[in-house]
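Dear Dr. L.,

I hope this message finds you well. Following up on our conversation about the binding site, I have prepared a predicted three-dimensional model of the protein together with nicotinamide-adenine-dinucleotide. For your records, I am including the exact sequence and ligand specification that went into the calculation, followed by the structure tokens. Please feel free to forward this to your student if that is useful.
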Amino acid sequence: MASKRILVTGAAGFIGSAVARRIIRETPHSLLVFDKLTYAGNLASLAPISNDPRYRFVQGDICDANAVREAFEVFQPDWVMHLAAESHVDRSIDGPGEFIQTNLVGTFVMLQEALRHWRGLKGAEADAFRFHHISTDEVFGALGETGLFREDTPYAPNSPYSASKAGSDHLVRAWVHTYGLPAIATNCSNNYGPYHFPEKLIPLTILNALEGKPLPVYGKGENVRDWLYVEDHAEALLTAVEKGKIGETYNIGGINERRNIDVVHAICDLMDEAAPDAKIGPRRDLIAFVQDRPGHDLRYAIDCAKIERDLGWRPRETFETGLRKTVQWYLDNRAWWGDIRSGRYRGERLGTLVSDGKAAS
Ligand code: NAD
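The resulting structure of the complex is given below.
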């Protein structure tokens, strides 16, 4: 296909960097990364592509309309893939203010600047322009033992994070219907894989298991999530921005439902196999059940039949193959996570303030 200019926000983060690496590795497109480099942004995740002439990086805040406008004017994107967000539920419990700013106000700024840019385009360029908003299945709330989230499931967000993402989804919908902005949105399940910041369940468990530290499991570990391998997700996102129908939303899932305790058991067994350590012993003995997250949603599960039927995408990895690749990546890439573990973030517990009645603003 003809090469496009793609502006990707939040591409120094976990999913955005997978999208960026895939764009350079597997497409003829060129890329502008627009990222504030918060604690979650890491240029080391873009190092494999940073010397490519089709790659450019701008450090900027999506809440800063002037900076966003300049990026549009200089780069003249054909497509915008908007991933920049505050993304961690536990952090949203401790400090929801940042989530409202970045996820709601920031998405508003992105929509306004995309609209201004699109209105300045003519003919085929205007027809080809797309704004792709990347969101989460957490906007749908929690499921009981059965059922699946579909695209038409009513919104019922439960955490400050999911409420801010739900609000941003509604803004996107309104900009399509009110102003005709050619936008699509996707809602995906829990991602895992290489370059994942080690505060999330899977990388935290892998690294604590490697170091013989306790493996914290919230509550009884019975919460169920659908797990999507990040490389599969990146492929789905590029499929959606290319082929998605304006105004539509698409659910993206891994078709891999697992209880948290089963995820942790699987990691323990893989670590015992790939990195046995007599001093540490069987990793399952390191599991430590800790106080549950306030308002922890019981189960998320996603029906991704629409994207398969309409756009021809389905995940390639099973949980077993994806998890094996992930464990091996962390064992092989100590330099990437070593700095994070030793400095800025040491794997401490987040998201408990509300239970002490001390929720920050
Ligand atoms: P992440 O936290 O790893 O990365 C977020 C990136 O956004 C970082 O590089 C950060 O520096 C950047 N950023 C934050 N605030 C910014 C701002 N104001 N201006 C510019 N850049 C800013 O997030 P992720 O896990 O890669 O998630 C990406 C997107 O996918 C988010 O929109 C998230 O809501 C959504 N999502 C993630 C998951 C998941 O499992 N990780 C699941 C569903 C949806």
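In brief: Residues 353-361 have pLDDT under 50 and may be disordered.

With kind regards,
A. P.
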